[in-house]
Amino acid sequence: MDNKDILLKVENLRKYFPIKDGFGKMKNVQAVENVSFYINKGETFGLVGESGCGKTTLGRSILRLLEPTAGKITYDGDVIFDGKLKKQSKMLPFRRKMQIIFQDPSASLDPRMTVGEIIGEALDIHKLYENKKQRTERINKLLDMVGLNSEHSNRYPHEFSGGQQQRIGIARALAVEPEFIVCDEPISALDVSIQSQIVNMLEDMQNELGLTYLFIAHDLSVVRHISDRIGVMYLGNMVELGASHELYKNPLHPYTKTLLSAVPVPDPKVSKSRKRIILDGEIPSPMNPPSGCRFHTRCPYAVEICSRELPEWREIDKEHFVACHIV
Amino acid sequence: MIMRDSFEPASREEKESHFELVKGVSYWQDAWRRLKRNKVAMISIYIIAFIFVFAFIGPMFSDYDYTTQLRGQENIAPSWGFPFGTDNLGRDLLVRTMYGARVSLIVGVCASLIVLVIGTVYGSVSGYFGGRVDDVMMRVVELIYSLPDILVVLLLSAVLRTPLQIWFNSSGGFIAGKLSVVGPGLISIFIAFGLLYWVGMARIIRGQVLMLKEQEYVVAAKALGAGSKRIIVKHLWPNCIGQIIVTTCMQIPSAIFLESFLSFLGVGVSAPLTSLGSMSADALGGMYTYSYRLIIPAIILSLMILSLNLFGDGLRDALDPRLKK
Amino acid sequence: MDNKKLLEIKDLKVTFFTHAGEVKAVGGISYDLDYGEVMGIVGESGSGKSVEAYSIIGLLQSPGKIVGGEILFENKNILEFDKKQMQDFRGNEIAMIFQNPMTCMNPVYTVGNQLIEAVLCHHKIPKKEAQKRAIDMLNLVGINNPENRMKQYPHELSGGMRQRVMIAMGLICDPKLLIADEPTTALDVTIQAQILELMKEIQKNTQMSIIFITHNLGVVADICHRVSVMYAGKIVEQGNVDDIFYNTSHPYTKGLLKSMPRVDAEGYERLIPIEGTPVDMLNPPEGCGFATRCQSCMKICLKEAPPTIEVGERHTSSCWLLAMPGEGEVN
Fold first, then answer.
1. Who is most buried in B12, B59, B270, C219, counting CB within 10 A?
2. ipTM of this model?
3. Touching check for A22 and chain C: CB below 8 Å?
4. With 70 as the cut, is the pLDDT of residue B47 above it?
């Protein structure tokens, strides 16, 4: 893999949240544990997993909206976080290049600001215009790009539907002309008939503007559709990483296999003929992760070593990584 | 009867004009609607408005000033020429009451503004930055809470009286001139407000900021690269403006009450400036003969404070976002 | 077929009388449910799917009111029940499970307490017997160590467990009909699979009927026998699950299926979304609720509500495209 094509590199990233357990002792919620991967320029990297897997925490830690506990993050050759250093680099210049779209559009838009002000704030912070006329023009152009129009810029977020609010959020992210966008469950809160509109819009934006996405979602169907490569997370670890179609055709990790078999498919014949892997038990709490491989408590193929040692992150096929003892 | 051409495809315009985007109701419109429904609050607004007019516009209709002493017209009972009578120096009590009300209102509003500015900034900084900063700042607040406020005002007033008087006499400057009219008593009250009374507001704003800074739109602003100042001023304050307005509004009657109380004790306004409190004090001597001199300022003062409090209550209910229907 | 139907809904209409105006949440829907049948009610927000379910079990809260229609349960009109009859009926013959079990269980009572209460409400049996039933129920829903679980509080359980407990509470009186309002929407995918398997098994063993409300067509394909697709308060298409997926008739249903990505897709295929935004139920336009978003919208669709036309065996669709002159019959 040509290093020049890598836009984001994450190495051994950890994010812990210190909390007090029931007895007053300080414990760490190991939300993200030793995750390493890279994202190429222009690609969509999908990140999937269930509750407690740490995907949202990972996404926000990459942008340093949550300060990582340890590890190294490199963006386009510049180190933006290094756990070994005492003082970290300033994020402001990177805020132009790295942006985020949130899950709940009604919560991520300031209810007291008009749409124009919300989008304009992005332009104001980075001084991306020379005069007022230019500013208004840019705002209108952004609204147009996301399928709204200039009349909407005087309205307040609550006057719009969920899908439109999400478009406003996307316009805001695009205002600073970013290269990389973390899409944190951007369609989960939207109606089914609107979801595909937003997915298509994100794809179009990517083609037009040459964007790179980190697409975080729990809906494997959508992630499969939009991503070039997918990383599967379980309880803070990344357990498998591979090309989108490869992961589906040839899943290596038992958890990936289970996840794929559990995704509902809108096709009765397929649904009935599928072999489902049903796991026992519940997802353990990130406060008390199991020893060794964190999946071993529910894994149908677990052997003795799985409860003792953390499996190594290895490249099995070309660009297909997995962390499992039995593969 | 279904026409054949009804089955022609509908054009895009036909579809778009078929419905319109529902115009939402803004926060203020919603609040105003709720406020209007509150009869008590509406009556209070009218009373407050009336008192304002009384205090600020009233004197323009009078021939007299609050200092004008009319020889030979002392101690007149309420009559056609002097609706509130005159005092023992021949001053028209109607005008003096108007001015007194004006002073009370101005003191109330200015004191509240002092509390607003200091309290909001302090509470926002403490709440937003959290951690050590918050701990230290809140300890200071608790310390201030424990001080006896009236005592501080009295001490300040006593301590500052002489130095201020000397300064007023020696300096011929504009500021010194204006301040000398205000008097050391009132100045001490304002200083006390600046030192002590903002803590309640600080606590309330800190509480709001603690809650609001976790909102996702704040994270979004940070992701855009917004600094602390922008986030506090443009995102946090507008979202707790309801709380800010209500708390400031409720501060006004308590400031007025404090000033009246201190003026009654003789430590507030200096003659010839008058306030409703000092007028009440002046009226104490002839309480039985000229009882109207006590009753009138007392009633106006009570009405002022009561209606401001009731209005503040109504405002709090109207602006409470949780009651949004 | 001479089967007595378990449930018959005839032209049900529900309106919410709010400050801002009347919201016709359900504008006249009809369907039948057989014994042992699982009916999926599919729709998005504003479609009215939850509202109609709440009407069946009599839990509709003001400002909502049932303003028309009949709900016949084993030929008895539920809407005419008095309070006592409704209380006997609810929980006993019909049970309901909700989307968010945390908010539907009392946090200050143990799980066991709530299960026992559910039994004792309807059956005058000694407490010990009720307790045994509760433990049996917990076993049935796949909760291990039920004796210990009985003593736990709702917040001590995980999401999947709570949903199982809720299912146990619903089933404990052996109802003939279970209404499940988005029971797996809030669950993780692997937990959802567990719960769906559980429900399928229980349904097969007890031959209980289920009304399964969801917006996820994948779940519908998995567990349902029949499907009613709702949009803007009306049923736009209704039929067997195979007909709905393979002989799709209504443009909305077609649009939904075309716009959903599939995890087993062969290569990349661009999604075909349904344009426009969901209808505002406060100001619903005249004519067909879906008209403004429909690719095949005709002038008449904007003016008059479409008739319901039979397109196959027990398969109906409400669309003017099926009633074009010279094609099919107009009802």
1. C219
2. 0.89
3. no
4. yes
